[in-house]
Amino acid sequence: MKFNWLSEFLANFVNASAITKAVTRPFIGLHQQLTPSSIYCRIKSTSAEALEHILIACAVYFLVCLGLYKLTFWLSASASPSTTVPGASNNNNNNGDSARSSSGLRNALQSGLRSVHLPKPAVMGRVLLVIAHPDDECMFFGPLIYTLTQRDGCQVYVLCLSNGNFEQKGQVRREELFRACKRLGISESNIILVNATNLPDDPNVEWRSDAVASFILHTVESLDIQAIFTFDRDGVSSHPNHCAVYYAAASLCLANLLPKACKFYTLDSINLVRKYLSVFDLLCTCFMSTHWCILSWKDASVVRSAMMEHQSQMKWYRWLYIYTSRYMFINSMREINLSDIELEMQIHDN
To answer: Helical H runs in 80-141?
Structure first.
């Protein structure tokens, strides 16, 4: 009995050794698997699989966007009234039920897929587009301008706050602006070009909001404008002159100086990837925007031809821009109210 404690100690030691081996055995195998070559092979196979899934998802997304793009304009074309042949109603009686069902399906699709989703023409009879430089109207607002000029009874005015004299080509760019606007359906009499020394075409010069606001307010009151369209606070391209235009218009709204019947809309700035998705940004636009206008390839060619009137600005990258940029096909806007401006002014101050 003297050695009972020794036998108990040895038994416990044996059991502890067995438990330790059982616990560490999986880690020994894992250690053997974590060699540099095995890790590289596993990462390579996983990356290839992930890349394959990403490519498949992108292909599906592009096909869906392309299908929706074609479907949108097919629905727009079918929505136009068609002519009927006299006496043909008797031959179509048997097909009445099928025609009504197909018409119901078409109407349901048209309510969800529309190439134009803007406020009613009655509240947008006189529209002012405020831009910073000649060529902004084509590079950024082309689809909006073309859509509005196709509306009956809609007068579109352009207020350009500089003559584009950054490269000492002010006179040339003035003429280019008039020609481009003419292609988009805006007459020369509807263009107001500002040539003020305190508003130069220069990203290094800060435009004073009160100076810009005075030009905007005078134009709105003299032309009885019902809707203003301009850049948002990011200015699409983050150009300081673009941003200054927004803050000037926002200050008018904040000070309650705009007429009550005048609405304020801004063009959405989007990230770099979406900016160069061309028509493939359609799905994101329809889900994330409140107002939009989408051009068919044929109508977008009018915007491209207008942009080509700005020959002094057609560098090699502009040629890529007019075929790949989403702003040549799609414009999305949102209406700005007082609470939005107060929030954005706080962000700007911070």
So the answer is: 96-112, 136-139
Contact 235, 243 (CB under 8 A): yes
CA-wise closest residue to 130 among 217, 189, 195, 207: 217
* Beta-strand pair 263-267/330-335: antiparallel
pTM over 0.85: no
The DSSP code sequence of 221-269 is: HHHT-SEEEEE-TTHHHH-HHHHHHHHHHHHHHHTT-S-TT-EEEEEPP
Tens digit of pLDDT for each residue in 7-54?
565 455 555 555 555 655 555 555 556 667 777 777 777 877 888 889
Q: Tokens 């009885």 sit at which residue?
A: 224
Encoded amino acid at 90, one letter: N
Strand 330-335 and strand 227-231: the pairing is unpaired
As given in the structure block, the two tokens for residue 313 are 């600005």
Tell me whether residue 212 is exposed, middle or buried, using C-beta atoms within 10 angstroms of its C-beta: 0 to 12, 13 to 18, 19 or more: buried
d(CA 257, CA 280): 39
Strand partners, 334: 266
- The half-sphere exposure of 95 on its side-chain side, counting CA atoms within 13 A, is 8
Contact at 8 Å (CB) between 323 and 219? no
Question: Counting Cβ atoms within 10 Å, is residue 205 exposed (0-12), middle (13-18) or buried (19+)?
Answer: middle
